[in-house]
Fold these 2 entries.
Entry 1:
Amino acid sequence: MTASSENALKERQFKIVGTRPLRPDGIDKVTGRARFGADMTAPGMLIGKVLRSPHAHARIRGIDASKALALAGVKAVVTHADFSKVGADLDDVSCNVMARDKALYDGHAVAAVAAVSGAVAAKALRLIDVSYEILPHVTDVEAAMGADAPVLHEDMFTSGIRPKPDRASNVVHRHEFGHGDVAQGFEQADVVVERHFTTAATHQGYIEPHACLGSVGPDGQGELWCCTQGHFYVRNACAAMLGMDLSHLRVTASEIGGGFGGKTTVFIEPVALALSRKAGRPVKVVMSREEVFRASGPTSSTAMTVKIGATRDGRITAAEAELKFQGGAFAGSPVDLGAMTAFACYDLKNVKTVAYDVVANRPKQAAYRAPGAPMAAFAVEGVMDELAGKIGMDPIALRLKNAAEAGTQSSYGPKFGPIGFVETLVAAREHAHYSAPLGPHQGRGVASGFWFNFGGQTCVSLNLHADGSVALAVGTPDIGGSRASMGQMAAEELGIDYDKIHTIIADTSSLGYNDISEGSRVTFSTGLATIQAARDAITKLCGRAAQFWGIPEDAVVWEDGHARPAGANAGDFEPLSLAEIAATAAKTGGPIAGHCEISAEGAGVSFATHIVDAEVDPETGRAQILRYTVVQDAGKAIHPSYVEGQYQGGAVQGIGWALNEEYIYGDDGRLQNPSFLDYRIPVASDLPMIDTVIVEVPNPGHPYGVRGVGETSIVPPLAAVANAVSAAAGVRLTELPLSPPRVLEAIDGMAAEDEA
Amino acid sequence: MAPITVTTTINGEAVSYLCEGDETLLDVLRDRLGLTGAKEGCSTGDCGACSVVLDGRVVCSCLVLGAEAAGREIETIEGMADGETLHPLQEKFIEHAALQCGVCTPGILVAAQVLLARNPSPSEEEVRFGLAGNLCRCTGYDKIVRAVLDAADTMRDGQ
């Protein structure tokens, strides 16, 4: 993209994009009418429940369900034997849905039952006799890497190391990223800071537990209603596990009560379908909160070492990180994403990150908002903070001195296009928050963060009705107000009122494949497809007008919602509105619709800088967040209220991760806090207002400049909060969460050191 | 054990239902009466998604037995709007974008309505503590607090 076209994007005036219309699903959601996963019923419906392993690691010797099946009201029992063999891409997912020869974590599903009521199903679960041989287990990431650790998978040999290991281990792979020569870089440094960090596993914490209603008839046709971020993926996974044709399973996405990455896979959906097929009746399965914690995906727990060297004037000469993430019982922790994002904010000559993917006896991790990046940023930005202190430099100035810009070769490979990192730093430095006075026991932290954002497969249909209203069918579940932003983009492009667009999430049989609503891809990719579908419809509208006027199609243009002759030479005709053309469609060639099928490329990366003030009670170690400001590049904010909402929500999830949230395992390998009482997510009284600044450096890959906004907001807060709390406590804190006992211990340790 | 017959008042209307002795009010509302606005987020009284008003008090309906509702007055999210006219809280939640996924929204609206009935001019801190029993994972609460404060203003002006 040339500089002039970039400027054109910056200068473009919009009518609807950038305004704050009411969301189309708002009334349903404030009146209780909106139908979420658990809100659907069907005639003849049974209730399904899942039996889960109480052991962290156990061989399954046998499952005897005869007593359960004999109980009145029980209609079906399924185990792994009821599922088809799947390809390598889904093998772990399938084994996580239903254990085979081994239960790999506390909560791993081993059988399921369908019965006439939840009470009968619960009773039946207690009658299923599973014979376990209990095996030694491991839940800690560094312990799982040890030579004497119990091995989860006898066929797992670490890839990426030479020579190829001859013993199975829990290390899936070792990957390396970076460029330059870090050893040489550290020699040029005046100051080097190296620290070891750990973070606890946290859960996405969506308020709506997983829920679905599945039905498979005797003709092999199936239907599934479920709360998911990606119903096309759910269809593919379920069809594979049930041995069905994709066209025989229609999946409808319910309203979704939060996902944050955690609803990008399947857990109970194939189980409901298998039970339904066996029982011949629809089966509803709803997880309890305890099941959500024990058996759906949290994120990784991590251990990380980061080393950064710089000259006295603040130029980084080398940066190195070693990241170890356990991703639960199966391969696939987001450690590579952590390694790729760790130093992405900076323009570095010498950078190296090493990533170890590790398995342990915990639930299979699922994506959690910018997977891997918040932990890596916690470590890197903590060292940056300490480095700034050591050389006596303002932390934002240190970041500005080393900030990545357009043309910088990123630490993970590609060169950046136009990016807005410097703009976020400058806006943060100039924000009133950054120079506000602090009181005793208070500290201020800043941190920055990066996320890639994704594109992906997208398919959209836009149907024009005879009355001039428009139905927009998209295939990406609305997880944060996207129906509003899609409506805005369609209205902007067509030149009609926002209220005339009705956006729905179509089922899997009504549209082509759509990738999951993940990777902050929806406003970018589905937005791009919506704009292109609108343009496709406009071409057809202009064609109808040309036909009506008897002039060539290329002599018609579309302006302000009307077809007009392209110029005086084209003829003198009254403009025709969309509604006028649509009203006569039956006579001019039939229905008018716009379509777009793409694999979207060009998602713009994004950056954020957060400022946070915290106060620490020196007697209890409790940290309180006093003030919080998010500055983030959105490229172009389509609906600023929902962009702000993403910034605020990500920041607060990050605050919870930093201060409270933690998976706690006992020595027996069982999760000790699977409830919202003991796994404490932030509540309203824990928090201040979350101020936001939307920076807009347009992404040339989108017609309006959109970048994804959903994930970057959770990347800086772990570090920003830790930096603030460290400043307030007067001691560097390197282990999350910063729970009161841990902070108090650090304060007391420092006092003891001072006395000595 | 035979099911229990319960007669109660829900959203101003007399309602009778049968329920088991161990069945929660939440299960009765959702599974027997089709009032699915109250959500089950935890079933342990920690998330507030199932909040309803019982004789003027906000309760987690997952912690109340269906049989306990006999002779009481229950208000749910389904009774908050007056026909097509939304309650000011409902309007302000939409206007302020105070919901993202919307699953906690019914419970928060119910709790906010009782909060404002008791304290028509709450401070920000009072709103935060008044809603501390209702978890929201999407919004960070900022826009929720602003919507409740704005609704309080509107409701005071309307009196």
Note: The two ends of chain A are 62 Å apart (CA to CA).
Entry 2:
Amino acid sequence: MSTDVTKIEEFLPLYDEVAKCGKCGFCQPTCPVYRATGKESYVARGKNALFRNLIEGETVMEADLKEAFENCLLCRACTANCFPAVKTDQLVVAFRESYAQRFGRSTIQRWIFRNFLPYPDRMARVIGLAWLSKRMGMADLAKKIGIVGMINPKLETAMELRDEVPSSFLRDRTKNTDLTAKGETKYKVGYWVSCGYNYMLPEVGEATINVLRHNGADVEVLGNNCCGLPVYGYGDVDGARNLAKKNIDILGDLDQYDYIVSECGSCSGHLKEYGELLAADPEYSMRAERLLAKVRSFSELLVEIDAEKPLGEIQASVTYHDPCHMTTRYQGIVTQPRELIKNVPGVEFREMTESDWCCGAAGSYNIMHNDVSMKVLERKMGNVAKTEAEIVVTECPSCIMQLSLGAKRQGMENTKVMNVSQLLDESYRQADN
Amino acid sequence: MIDQSVIQELKGIVGEDNVLHNKADLQTYEYDAYLEKSLPDVVVFVSSTQEVSDVVKAANRAQVPFVARGRATNLSGGVLAMRQGIVIELARMDRVLDIDIENQRMIVEPAIYNLEVTGAIDNLGYYYAPDPASGKACSIGGNVGENAGGPHCFKYGVTSNHVLGMEVVLPDGEITWLGGKALDAPGLDLTGVFVGSEGTLGIATKLVLRILHKPEAVKTMLAVYDSIDDASNSVSAIVSHKMVPATLEMMDNLVIQAIEQSMAAGFPLDAAAVLLIELDGLKDGMEEMADKIVEICKENNVREIKVATCEAERAALWKGRKGAFGAIARLSPNYLVADGTVPRTKLPETLRMCREIGDKYGLRVANVFHAGDGNLHPLILFDSRNPEDKEKVLKAGMEMLQVCADMGGTVSGEHGVGIEKAEAMYMVYNEKDLLAQEWVKDAWDPQDLANPGKILPQRLIKREEAHVS
Amino acid sequence: MSPKTESYTAALTGIVGKDAVEEKPQVTVADQSPSLRVRPKSVDEVGKVLAFANENGLGVIPTGSGTKLEMGNPPEKFDLLLDLSGLDQIVEYDAENLTIAAQAGVRVKDLVELVGKDELFFPVDPSFPGEATIGGVVATSDNGPKRFQHGNLRDVVLGVKVMLPNGDLVKFGGRTIKNVSGYDVTKMMIGSMGILGVIVEATFRLLPEPQREDVLVHAFPKLSEATKLAGEVLDSVLVPSSLELLSPAARKLLKGVASDFAVGEYLLVVGLEGHPDAVVRQEQDLTSMCANLAPNRTALVLGGDYVAEGKEASEREVTCQIHDHGAACNCETVTDQATVDSLWDEIYNLERTAKEAGFAVSAKIAVPLARVWEMAAAAEKSAAANSVQIAYKVSAGNGLLNLYLQGDNEKVLAVLEDLRTLAQKREGSLVLKSGPLFNGSFDVWGEPQGTHVPLIKAIKAKYDPNGVLNVGRYVGRI
């Protein structure tokens, strides 16, 4: 492994970006990790300084730097509050990529990235095995295997959290069921299967499909792989590109769909960034742009197609947590989910302070840095508690799992966490009955 | 280099995890929002007054200098560890300890963000008046260190007018209280001297703040001018008509252009100056005062003037001012915020001379300033990757301060002295004046361990000695 | 006369001239009299006199008009009274930029009049404005009722020039509102009682004169009612410039406009400044607050010289709008600025009037705002218990209580000690401003709280290493 580097050549394209940082410190108050720890190396300003030092040869790529760049949720709150809008998340990913290239990834991580994520059936088998062992009272064993956590740590957290084990994955559940529009067919919608819903929260996916069908959509469950976001977050940009290309290939002719929708903010957000990810590839970048035209987050689509007003009454106070990838920092789908929630009869909507503050789940973060992640979560749950809402709605499986964990930890047993689609589905169902 | 035994001792005080000393970590504590760097030996996270005291006592035993650090947003190098040593990181001491409405006081820990102080009492109808532009990111402890100001200071005064007492760890580690909730404590106003002492007299660990009832009404106006002189004359005329607005903020043409490029606030690109005026107080008479201000501005050749009629319009008028620094940040990779103060009527002349200095060095200079109190902030644009640029910027900055001093003003309005302006102190004080200031430091910190090398030019640590990287 | 004193006289005469040196002046501080009074006419002369005293180890007490000469513990040495009344020049008056720099001996009244000509307002209203000099006001940090709105000395003094005992003239601060160039030694000089150096010049911030100034006087038979109203005002959006309460005994000392009003009751004197509409609005609000609290109360409204634009003075609007506000309140109105000013003047001189009426002891209590009422009640109680006569004035917006006491020395002392303990329990202080020193047994300043005596000593040692200025008179007998 090489440690003889004095200047990190591959960072040079980002020199202009990092040089914009004037060290004003406005990133600090908005950085969830900094707020939880107070550590300068965890906030954008500190990372920018180190990154610049790497470029200018003031420091060398070494293990001590890793901690700084690991401690980032990629939530982009820093950039949103930065006068020159320094894209620190790009620096972080570039560092993670470069670091892994120099020092290597752990063998198991590499093995998983290469051998599991691109192969849904293998994923299904491993996770199925893990669930099975939990069902048989061997949760610890499953944890010790560790593979699930490496594939997607949230899956592991969810496994710990979830008392009743899902009997089957979403893909299996949707196999021989009617996916056609209820009533007149107005749209053909490709339903993107997010790993989180598929393996952990299949009932959310079912609710989503139900809502889509209710609104005149013929739904096709897509045969997609993982979107690649976790891989990207680890800094395996090539791996993420491969997954993106593979997914584009799997989707094939996009003209067959009016929309491609996901009720996972991370998936929909990342799909919209395929273009940038594949910018250097003339063929795929064009196809990614065409994909962009079709991709919608669930809330975005429902408001766009002027979804049928739900009539079933749900007497509850509801607050909304903006998943990072739904905020203006990524997709900018902010008003839509609120509109959908407020539309549900009986619901009293209560806006939460710092509603778009990251919940701390963020990729591998809540496993690798569980203590900090839990502090970030505490802040979020404090804000949830202040609303005294009975239901927290969001649009991301990671957030659902993290917030559920938070509710459990804070003893907020009566606080329900659900996806926007579940709230709508429930209202529709009530009206139907 | 610091002795390993000191590091061990520090770990014993605050715990292993709260002491940082690898290079990667230290490099994130070698800067603040100024342009220089200096690498400390060790960073210690403290979470209580007792820990601060214990760390300071350890520093005394080892004769190692220390510097307190909060959010490190200061613009003059105030928290750079010029003689290396210990950075005492206060970031985790950020709690509200006491909200005492009936006595109109609040007690907070130093690292709480300025805006979060008001945030904590907003629902009770109160606020904390000093409002530095960096209020979102800067800490109250830092405000105390620098005696920070802000747009509302013309009417309400600066930090030292609102900090009435504090718990302090003195440079030898002793914990004591200066001032308190009551006014007029007998004895020298040590609180007053401490505010603005940039951490050279000890470390404040609790602060007693004066809090004010929120004004009943606010009226905001935005006036656009074809000449800076007209805008400045309007300011003088408003004051001579017996009005004391809370805010009188001005921006010059380069800032206007930058704002328009980045956010389209609706300023004419060829305008020479934009003046933001805000009245606050009781609603009665406010309309009439606003009308009078409009009239005054018209008499002074205003091109156009808008008066906000609702909160949304008010936000729109503030939008440009609030985004000014951001807009400038987009014009150039870096900028130096100079900070000088002149008697208000000298503003137009001072600004002209600042522009000339910029021209001389081939540097672009944008101006955002608190016109009411004659506090100007020339922003000198440059790219810190170019060392020659940086030298020129520093020179130009010093020349601008000389202009302020020559005009009867001073070399630091609200950003402190730090290392940036220590030499500039000679522009306003002679050797005897400075010696009399040094006595304060000598009396408080005879060992010269608390943030050494700041404020006083005779104490400035030269670049070569300081191992500034 | 000792030969030594003769040689001092000769030397000092050489500096300031014969007519400026007085031997055995009729001045006493804690029963001590100086050998000489010296009255320099320039800053330069002050420097030379001080340097001489410093070299010869003479005890120096600076003074202006002597209104606060009594403040402080007994001096350890007192050879020279340094009379600064000769430093009477306005150094720089910049009306446009709202600043004025004046020498120490300039009288407050003269300064107020000077800036008043330009419709400017000097935001300091100390005791005895007719005689008090700005040097003394700064050195003692003495301020009055309007401090509630305009701040204390530390909020309005922008800079000072100080003559050090070694004869060096130094300056601190400047002439701009915002100034963070170096240590804020100005703050430390304010209220330093001249122990560090002699303040020879100070620069003040000025304000535009208020468009209108009214005074509203409410009367209450009970302290608790006044307390309640003051509390309500403080927790409201109203912005009075002052909020003073006079005890029945204190208001009895008033001879002017308020003397016949609601005799025997507590008076809450509320100063209102600003836009005429805002002043009237506050009068209305205050009156209704008052009516809600205690029906059928009366108010005395003193309207300042305000004439609405486009009207003749004879058509002057009076604040009779209050009458519309409810029959619950009976208002008397008087309308001219001279009356307003005269009421203030009586309040500014209350300490003297009290003294003339036999209240020999004057003390000041400072506590957190809301605690001041407990202190007022405690003062009444303690005075009654000790058969001491008491008059007092509360500055509600600042948490200050000025006490005037008369009675047997021992009993007065008991009251003072009692109240000091109570004040300190409330994180406050009690300072003896004037009166007998009880044989030096009662520390004028009290056991220091919220300050640090070793630090003050260390600072004193730097500025006045030979110990010539006001030695032994300060906090901690420094």
Note: Residues 4-89 of chain B form a domain with the Uridine Diphospho-n-acetylenolpyruvylglucosamine Reductase; domain 2 fold (CATH 3.30.43.10).
